[in-house]
Write a structure and sequence with these properties.
single chain, 103 residues, mainly alpha, Serine Threonine Protein Phosphatase 5, Tetratricopeptide repeat, 0% strand, globular
């Protein structure tokens, strides 16, 4: 039996907005200084991972501008780039690769 800690039964508001496709809410949350853009949700996913998977270059850039950790890994040891490297999200791939080269 798998036990999930009580604090991990829901995603943080930013990740929830991204997951549901509520981009206006996600943008509003990203722009708030109090929002932790590196907070992990279920399975260790970050907002950057969700924005990358959704293929939203604008949100990826907003998160990077807010210092989202492009090297963060989920519970399966995957980064945002790992999650999309075999997808058709070439614009997002390029943006993340560009940031990886700068580090």
């Amino acid at each position: 039996m798998v036990t999930i800690p009580i604090e991990k039964v829901a995603n943080p508001p930013l990740i929830d907005a991204l997951k549901r496709g509520n981009l206006d809410a996600a943008k509003a949350l990203i722009s708030k200084p109090a929002t932790d853009v590196n907070e992990k949700g279920l399975f260790g996913h970050t907002a950057l991972m969700w924005a990358a998977v959704k293929g939203d270059v604008e949100l990826v850039q907003m998160l990077i501008d807010r210092h989202a950790d492009i090297n963060a890994k989920d519970d399966d040891d995957q980064t945002a780039y790992d999650l999309i490297k075999y997808s058709s999200r070439t614009e997002v791939q390029s943006k993340i690769l560009e940031m990886l080269k700068k580090k």
